[in-house]
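Hey Z.,

So I finally got round to the NAP thing we talked about over coffee. Here's the setup:
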Amino acid sequence: MQSGFAQELHGKTALVTGGTRGIGFAIARAFLERGARVAITGRKEDGVRAAVASLRDAGPDRVLGVAAHSARPEDVARAFGEAQAAFGTVQVVVNNAATNPTMVPLAEVEPEVFDKILETNLKGYWLVAREAARRLREAGVPGSIVNVSSVAAFRAWPGLGAYGVSKAAVNMLTQVLAAELGRHSIRVNGIAPGVVRTRFSEALWKAPGAEEKAAARSSLGRIGEPEDIAGAAVFLASDASRHVTGQTIIVDGGTTTG
Ligand SMILES: NC(=O)c1ccc[n+]([C@@H]2O[C@H](COP(=O)([O-])OP(=O)(O)OC[C@H]3O[C@@H](n4cnc5c(N)ncnc54)[C@H](OP(=O)(O)O)[C@@H]3O)[C@@H](O)[C@H]2O)c1
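And the result:
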């Protein structure tokens, strides 16, 4: 029997939240390079504009940017609406926009900071997945939702407590959505990166000696680059993963197993 699939995304429309830089940007570029039409979001209008301009070489007529906050239902609906109007029903969604504004012990996190983390990292992911699922079911087309989690969901990282709690919840969001949406041919999976060189994680690699320390914890001897995460996203978005759902793939260079 022939496999009948390719890791190609020709003809698919994807929406990547937080696609203006870092991991989301690398995923958006990888999707464009494989033929998808891609909408990216970010809160800041200028960031969206700049990212779209630098993605154009990968797919001049296939990229769109929408300034939208993932945790605001009206922004989420607008982002999907604009993507759908430009490129058709969004079949691939990458929930990637997340935040971690603090690095203090969990017992010292202020309530409003805790709320902010859970609002973006968990409620935002749920709102985006909910909008995607509604539109996919209405259109009667199959889909793939990919939730970017973190290794902090699996093991306690002192100083990243509220963030780790939010990502552990994202893993269960992935499992429940997969169980409920499978019958509608909507797959839901996650990717859990280790330390990746982005603005978000600067505290973990930028200070003198920090990168070497983080790299030493990994079997592959280096921290991740945003492009290292994009391959798993392409796999989960494509038909190559057509029988995979409810899983969270750890992409950390072997940090959690080394
Ligand atoms: N970097 C790592 O080491 C690492 C490790 C494990 C997991 N992760 C996960 O990987 C994902 C991406 O992280 P990153 O390192 O690439 O971060 P990043 O470089 O800081 O990029 C974050 C992106 O999200 C957008 N964003 C933030 N809050 C948003 C909101 N409420 N609504 C819409 N967009 C929002 C940002 O644009 P605006 O600022 O314009 O909104 C930006 O495009 C996150 O889920 C993170 O938890 C990262």
